[in-house]
Design a protein that fits this description.
Blueprint: E1 16-24, E2 30-39, E3 44-48, H1 55-62, E4 70-75, E5 78-79, H2 85-91, E6 92-96, H3 107-111, H4 113-117, H5 122-135, H6 140-143, H7 153-165, E7 171-175, H8 183-200, E8 203-208, H9 211-217, E9 220-225, E10 229-234, H10 236-241, H11 246-252, H12 256-262, E11 284-286, H13 291-301, E12 305-310, E13 313-319, H14 320-326
This protein binds adenosine-5'-triphosphate.
Domain ABC transporter: 16-252
Family: Belongs to the ABC transporter superfamily.
GO molecular function, one term: ATP binding
Length: 330
């Protein structure tokens, strides 16, 4: 399969191009009327929108679990409808809500599924399984021999991710991958997942209902409305800062200002000069950290100002008013 690396893309990440795709189910439901979308190699794109707007349908058309009624889907330069579906699915990792692990197989055997289908030698498969379990934070010696029912929900999700990465896919599709676990585990899994993505740099399309998850994970977010209509396709900061339509404005909610703080870094432009004493008694926040965290630091300490540091050295003063100003929207 052809691979088109984009800037910063890891080894073997492919771009995805949806060209005017449409899906009409046999009963006449127009799940997706016409959608065009491009995901760059190595990019993490989130699909979000109200229930029934066609997110899962779009995702499953990419790996041909569902056949499009019309339009083209390219992986790199290859039209996926011209690739044998089984071969295609071995090149595309797929992670779903309840993971779908095989219950009667050990964790190691689950992760080894696709390498097994590809006929990898035993030693290579075993080394890959160990490497992946370590990558997702599970000790292979401890967890490899367990069965799925002997794991927590969060551990099962990690095994699902490890399994999807096993044959080094060019694309990873994720349908509500973190929704089956409680909010605290979920946040931790999201953070680990971002670290993992920084390492493997796959092209990822992730479906979620959760706007905070979308904002936290997405390089770009595609907001869909009924019939798979693309309302806006933008970075989290742009989406929250300038919703393109009343639909998006309502969808991102009244608290989008707060959400925007979470994706807005503290930069030199918003800093005031340091006081003569260097602000020794004030709370410190890092340059480039999120405005949301800076506000949290200010509120916790009760201070009006924080010292902003770079490599541990103070570079300026940040006031509460300036931080709040970063969340003010049009
Ligand atoms: N096999 C099917 N036959 C007929 N209609 C279907 C079929 N599968 C899905 N649909 C319909 O297609 C539309 C889009 O469904 P889809 O599952 O893609 O939405 P979704 O955005 O992923 O929804 P949710 O957020 O609730 O999971 C819905 O109206 C759904 O009822």
């Amino acid at each position: 399969m052809d691979v088109t690396p984009g800037p910063g893309a890891g080894h073997g990440a492919a771009s995805i191009t949806l060209e005017r795709i449409r899906k009409r189910y046999p009963d006449g439901t127009e799940a997706v009327r016409e959608l065009s979308l491009e995901v760059k190699a190595g990019e993490l794109v989130v699909l979000i929108g109200p229930s029934g707007c066609g997110k899962s349908t779009v995702l499953r058309m990419i790996n041909r679990l569902i056949e499009p009624t019309d339009g083209r889907i390219l992986l790199g330069d290859d039209d996926v409808t011209r690739v044998d579906p089984v071969t295609l699915r071995r090149r595309i990792g797929y992670v779903i809500q309840n993971v779908g692990l095989f219950p009667h197989q050990t964790v190691a055997a689950n992760v080894a599924t696709v390498p097994g289908l590809l006929g990898w030698p035993r030693e290579r498969t075993r080394a890959r399984v160990d490497e992946l379990l370590e990558l997702v934070g599970l000790d292979p010696g401890q967890f490899g021999r367990r069965y799925p029912h002997e794991l927590s929900g969060g551990q099962r999700q990690r095994v699902g991710v490890a399994r999807a990465l096993a044959a080094d896919p060019v694309v990873l599709l994720m349908d509500e991958p973190f929704s089956a676990v409680d909010p605290i585990v979920r946040t931790r899994l999201q953070e680990e997942f971002l670290r993992l993505q920084a390492e493997v740099r796959k092209t990822i399309v992730l479906v979620t209902h959760d706007l905070d998850e979308a904002v936290r994970l997405g390089d770009r977010i595609a907001v869909l409305s009924e019939g798979g209509r693309l309302e806006q396709y933008d970075t989290p900061a742009a989406l929250l800062g300038s919703p393109a339509s009343p639909f998006v404005r309502e969808f991102v909610g009244a608290d989008r200002g707060i959400r925007r703080l979470a994706v807005t870094p503290v930069t030199r432009e918003v800093l005031d000069p340091l006081p003569a004493d260097g602000g020794a008694d004030l709370p410190a926040v890092p340059l480039g950290g999120s405005a949301y965290d800076a506000l949290g630091g200010l509120l916790t300490s009760g201070a009006e100002h924080a010292v902003v540091t770079e490599d541990g050295r103070p570079v300026g003063l940040l006031s509460r008013a300036r931080v709040l100003g970063l969340g003010v929207l049009d």
